[in-house]
Design goal:
It is a single chain. By secondary structure, this protein is an alpha+beta fold. The protein has two domains: about 350 residues, D-Maltodextrin-Binding Protein, domain 2, CATH 3.40.190; about 240 residues, Dipeptide-binding Protein, domain 3 (Roll), CATH 3.10.105. It is about 30% helix and about 20% strand. A hairpin with a 6-residue loop joins strand 7 and strand 8. The protein is globular. The two termini are about 30 Å apart. Belongs to the bacterial solute-binding protein 5 family.
């Protein structure tokens, strides 16, 4: 997502900016020509020792950049949206795996009126910033104040584009409070859609007749960086000098290379031309052969966590619309298929040759961090039996129901082979395609089940999945919480009866649907529990609900829980930069560049000072994370105390740190965010600064008539 950078003086704690504002109408949008605000912020530090370091570069094996139109609602806008998280910010960031919420543009939020109302209090003193060439070719500096008006404009467009399934109305109670009223209560939607949606400036998005076709030639956001220049193959982003988190970010410039292939991305990483990667697996090829061989002391890669924790929810779905016959529609048959799979071999063959790169999936269908947080131990223990490799046990189950292997093929009791089935995937998705092939081979080798894997283009694959035009498919689903995993994987289209009960819309199952790919019709209890989960903020009640849902899944086994796709799956180097979330100290799951909320890690990354040891690097990472979260939650008035800056000073003794280890230190946090975060306080103002403010006031009075033309 990202040349000349403005240098900042570490000793300057307060920035006083006098601003004369004029607004010109250009192509239907407002163009502020200069800025004005008295800001109270801590300038980010500079590190002279890093002047010779390579520009911090991010790469992913993805697509080209949308240089002619940066509209976040535009067609294909999210094809490669890594850059969005560096420019735009949501009301809150959510941890991808745990669902933990971190207040960003929102200071805090509370619920009222039986959870119909979510009242969000906004932070003050934040601006949308841009410095560069505008659509008309003029050079501008923009600082649009962030207020409730931006939130209203954002969701007006968002609902127009994506729909408003819970009949949410958005109103402002003054410039710094927004009330979201849901006609139908759904707390996860409030948390993980409303709070995590990027907030956009109303000057650009407030009056769009067609949000999806509007042209936004320049992205303007509140985030830590702003766009400096871009081509389809590379973009540069510079540090936002008016960024509202004191002292952050530490890196003055980011380069983003959206490589067109995994091989190209790994080449950049191996040459030291990229410091952060979000590049996919190439099957069994280990990181040591992809890029870490070039500098094994400082280059590292993660495929899940070394102890088997993590993974992105991914399952082998059975399409019950097509395989609606015996024995596919029997739980015992699916259980036999499950225990016939060697999950360790599948992980090695699909995720960098790592035995736990693709963690085994239990019948809760939840990654272990989520499972441990929400599901009771007895259900977890029962659910774990489905991923125990036991070919003889699988054959015994099949034989007890009359199935047998004849001439190498699994056959009905009368000796007729079971019909061959196909599994679709796309060979360009090297990890999920490799997993699909390995599953098919194991089922054929161990049970005689005839499964062939067919590669289809991604567009056709997703269309076939939604329309039910497949037999089997191994693919991914949502994260954040059990609510979303179970929603996307197992909740069919619903309809509401006159008595208010939601039931499966059986008719809709015959058409195109976007959840429940297997077209499983769950027990009514499962649907009722899911509805209840959407209506409560009570963590104890949620644990009971999700445990009950997991118990149903363990009993019915509607899909085959094979292995999770590797997550986190990313690459990094620590020769020149530190602060990454790694096995040495793993503090956030938002580590891949394509994950929304990756700013939680980016804001901690800093140039590595000469002489920093491995233990010092870990100590800095812990301190940087704790200082950042303390500021976000309002318990500290700065994210960058002098004690943290001292850790980034060069030391006299140079010690080469060893390669990354698999020791994991995970910072466990509660899943329910605080709702009464006090506003952060600010450092005092010196006499000299007071004098400067007097001058500013005189200037502001002189131009008050012009300022009045502005939007606020």
């Amino acid at each position: 997502m990202k040349k000349m950078k403005k240098q900042f003086n570490m000793s300057s704690q307060i920035k006083i900016i006098a601003l004369v504002v004029t607004a010109l109408t250009i192509g239907g949008g407002l163009l502020p020509m200069s800025l004005g605000l008295v800001a109270n912020a801590q300038s980010p530090p500079t590190f002279s020792y890093a002047s010779s370091y390579p520009v911090f570069t991010v790469t992913t094996g993805s697509g080209l950049l949308p240089t002619s139109n940066w509209n976040v609602f535009g067609a294909g806008a999210h094809g490669d949206n890594n850059w969005e998280d560096w420019i735009y910010q949501p009301l809150a960031d959510a941890d991808f795996m745990t669902g933990q919420l971190y207040p960003i543009l929102a200071k805090n939020w509370t619920f009222a009126d039986n959870n119909h109302e979510m009242i969000v209090n906004l932070r003050r003193g934040i601006v949308f910033y841009y410095n560069g060439t505008w659509s008309n070719g003029s050079n501008v500096v923009i600082t649009w104040p962030f207020t409730s008006k931006d939130v209203l404009a954002t969701f007006k467009d968002y609902f127009a584009v994506y729909g408003n399934p819970y009949n949410v109305t958005v109103t402002a109670n003054g410039p710094y409070q927004v009330i979201f009223y849901s006609g139908t209560v759904n707390i996860p939607y409030d948390y993980y859609t409303i709070l995590t949606t990027y907030i956009l400036p109303w000057e650009q998005y407030g009056n769009l007749s067609s949000p999806t076709t509007a042209v936004i030639s320049v992205p303007v956001g509140t985030g830590p960086y702003y766009l400096y220049k871009a081509t389809p193959t590379q973009a540069y982003f510079l540090r936002n000098p008016d960024f509202w988190i004191p002292g952050r970010p530490f890196i003055p410039e980011i380069s983003f290379i959206p490589a067109t292939s995994n091989a190209y991305s790994y080449g950049l990483l191996a040459k030291g031309q990229a410091q952060w990667g979000g590049t996919g697996s190439t099957g069994s090829t280990p990181f040591s052969k992809l890029f870490t061989y070039a500098n094994p002391t400082y280059y590292g890669g993660m495929a899940s966590i070394g102890n088997g924790s993590g993974g992105q929810p991914s399952f082998l779905w059975i399409n019950y619309e097509k395989l609606n016959y015996w024995p596919w529609n029997e739980t015992w048959f699916r259980y036999a298929l499950s225990i016939a799979l060697n999950r360790t071999a599948i992980s090695v063959g699909s995720q960098f040759g790592i035995t736990t790169g693709a963690p085994p999936t239990s019948a809760t269908f939840l990654p272990s961090p989520m499972e441990q947080e929400w599901i009771n131990s007895s259900v977890i223990q029962e659910a774990s039996t489905v991923d125990q490799y036991n070919v003889s046990g699988a054959l015994s189950i099949l034989e007890s129901h009359g199935l047998k292997i004849v001439n190498g093929q699994l056959s009905f009791p009368n000796g007729t082979p079971l019909p061959a089935v196909t599994m679709i995937n796309y060979e360009g998705f090297s990890d999920t395609f490799a997993t699909s092939v390995l599953i098919a081979n194991e089922l054929k080798q161990n049970l005689g089940l005839q499964v062939s894997v067919i590669s289809v283009p991604p567009s056709e694959m997703f269309t076939d999945e939604d329309a039910g035009q497949y037999d089997l498919i191994y693919w991914l689903t949502n994260a954040y919480s059990p609510y979303f995993v179970y929603d996307s994987a197992f909740i069919p289209p619903l309809e509401q009866l006159p008595n208010g009960t939601f039931v499966t819309n059986v008719t809709a199952l015959n058409g195109t649907i976007y959840t429940d790919p297997g077209r499983w019709v769950p027990p009514q209890q499962f649907i009722n529990l899911w509805i209840e989960a959407g209506e409560t903020t009570n963590v104890t009640q949620l644990r009971q609900i999700y445990s009950a849902m997991a118990a149903i899944l363990t009993k019915d086994l509607p899909a085959i829980p094979v292995v999770f796709d590797a997550y986190p799956r990313y690459e990094y180097e620590t020769q020149y930069y530190v602060g990454f979330s790694t096995p040495l100290y793993f503090y956030t799951w938002n580590v891949e560049p394509w994950i929304e909320g990756n700013e939680l890690m980016l804001l901690n990354i800093a140039p590595r000072p000469p002489g920093m040891t491995q233990s010092q690097m870990v100590a800095y990472t812990k301190a940087a994370w704790n200082d950042l979260t303390s500021f976000l939650y309002g318990t500290s008035n700065t994210a960058t105390p002098q004690s943290l800056l001292n850790m980034l000073q060069p030391t006299t003794t140079t010690t080469t740190p060893p390669p990354p280890t698999t020791n994991t230190t995970t910072n466990h946090t509660t899943t329910t965010p605080p709702t009464t975060t006090p506003p952060p306080s600010h450092p005092g103002i010196s006499a000299a600064e007071i004098a400067a403010i007097v001058v500013v006031v005189i200037v502001v009075v002189a131009v008050v008539a012009v300022v009045a033309l502005r939007r606020r």
